[in-house]
Automatic annotation (TrEMBL):
GO BP annotations, alphabetical order: tRNA methylation; tRNA wobble uridine modification
Species name: Sinorhizobium terangae
Chain positions recorded as Mg(2+) binding sites: S231, T252
Top-level EC class: hydrolase
Name this polypeptide is given: tRNA modification GTPase MnmE
């Protein structure tokens, strides 16, 4: 789609910084460059220029890089100004750009949106780029890079080609069944491949849980009775004072969370209110929230400073794994047997903390030998994949209804795959997807 306006924005990090990058994209890019920097520089070469106001007053000196469309990030004429990263410098240059006719400040994600709408990226690549910008762990980086680099899209496009081929073969049989160069029946080859394709899609959907852990983190809840050492353990694992620790039972009233990186994975730790019966209104609300958080956990660390008081009640669902952690083992007034708990530790001395981290690591996904992280990382991906799988199942089971009905279901499956990459009917999704980006990207 054509764009009549030209956009600009600061595309680098927070100011002040050593270098700031100001990006310009659109039909008036060359006009903006010549107005601020003089003659148009050679394409795709860094050129040192003085950046001036419309009256010729110097604002700064920096590198100018010009990328004529369509061979640019957005598919339009683009320019990057690499200038000194002072607030006053950047503000002055942005003010000067605002005075150029046809230029306006970019909205969040607008550069990437133009890249999508000009066919430079598909939606999976766009979402991968957004994830790459905010990636905090090694596995998040690898997953985002797989998506932004087109690896995931290539898989979906391969599946779409197989669906298109199957439909073409079926329609050829329907339209030219009496011709000598069309086989009498393509069912054997087509339906065998479609059954195989459905199996591949189902296997792919099965990796969504792993992708969720990589992208959103393994959710670990620290639970137990009041004063069992939950907040002390959170502080010890976070290596800073996140939660208030006192000898008073019921100190923690609300959910406190900390993000950690463990073996390249994101781990989200939740400290919760002590589980017990109470009439105190605020503490009771904290316990209700604790139970809700435990219900959404991937793993629960159940703490107790006494082997007889591992309190669970009905708070922990049966399908959630539990690690029993004996706390305050530096005290002499409590005797523990090896069978009483899974981990024995003291946050005061640090004993057992390494054992706990090793135990947590065993609950992280095993990606040994995986060179590619091609897996669905968002709910909309999974929803579309399930729609494609269901359409394939309907097609495979509709033999009695005729080839035309089966071919229509293959078309539905292809459209579902197309919605993942943005090839089919995704206009209503665009505002949501690109709103995740920062200004200037």
């Amino acid at each position: 789609m054509p764009f009549t306006d030209t956009i600009y924005a600061l595309s680098s990090g927070a100011l002040p910084a050593g270098v700031a990058v100001i990006r310009i994209s659109g039909p008036a890019t060359t006009e903006a460059i010549t107005r601020l920097c003089g003659p148009l520089p050679r394409a795709r070469s860094a050129t040192l220029r003085t950046i001036r106001t419309r009256n010729g007053e110097p604002l700064d000196s920096g590198l100018v890089l010009y990328f004529p469309g369509p061979a640019s990030f957005t598919g339009e004429d683009c320019c990057e100004l690499q200038v000194h990263g002072g607030r006053a410098v950047v503000h002055a240059i942005l003010e000067e750009l605002a005075g150029v006719d046809g230029l306006r400040h970019a909205e969040a994600g607008e550069f990437s949106r133009r890249a999508f709408q000009n066919g430079k990226m598909d939606l999976v690549e766009v979402e991968g780029l957004a994830d790459l910008i905010v990636a905090e762990t090694e596995m998040q980086r690898r997953l985002a890079l797989e998506h932004s680099g087109g690896g995931q899209s290539a898989l979906y496009e391969g599946w779409a080609r197989r669906l298109t081929h199957a439909r073409a073969m079926i329609e050829a049989e329907l339209d030219f069944a009496d011709e000598d160069d069309v086989p009498g029946s393509v069912s054997a080859s087509v339906w065998k491949d479609m059954a195989k394709l459905r199996g591949e899609i189902e296997e792919h959907i099965g990796q969504a849980g792993l992708a969720e852990i990589i992208r959103d983190g393994l959710k670990i809840v620290i639970a137990g009775e009041p004063n069992a050492g939950k907040s002390s353990l959170l502080n010890a694992l976070a290596k800073r004072d996140v939660a208030i620790v006192t000898e008073i039972a019921g100190t923690t009233r609300d959910i406190i969370s900390v993000d950690l990186s463990l073996a390249g994975f994101s781990v989200k730790l939740f400290d919760t209110a002590g589980l017990r019966e109470t009439d105190e209104v605020v503490e009771r609300e904290g316990i209700r929230r604790a139970r809700e958080t435990i219900g959404r956990a991937d793993l629960v660390l159940l703490l107790s400073d006494n082997p007889a008081r591992f309190f669970t009640g009905e708070a922990i669902p049966e399908n959630v794994p539990i690690i029993k952690v004996a706390t305050k083992i530096d005290r002499d007034d409590v005797s523990w047997l090896p069978s009483d708990a899974d981990i024995f530790l003291s946050t005061k001395t640090g004993a057992g903390v390494a054992d706990l981290l090793e135990a947590l690591g065993s609950y992280l996904p095993d990606l040994a030998g995986k060179t590619s992280l091609s897996m669905p990382s968002r709910k909309r991906h999974v929803d579309c994949l399930r729609q494609a799988s269901a359409a394939l199942e309907r097609s495979l089971s509709a033999e009695a209804l005729g080839l035309d009905i089966q071919a229509e279901q293959l078309r539905v499956a292809g459209d579902a795959l197309g919605r993942i990459t943005g090839r089919v009917d995704v206009e209503n999704l665009l505002d949501v997807i690109f709103s995740e980006f920062c200004i200037g990207k």
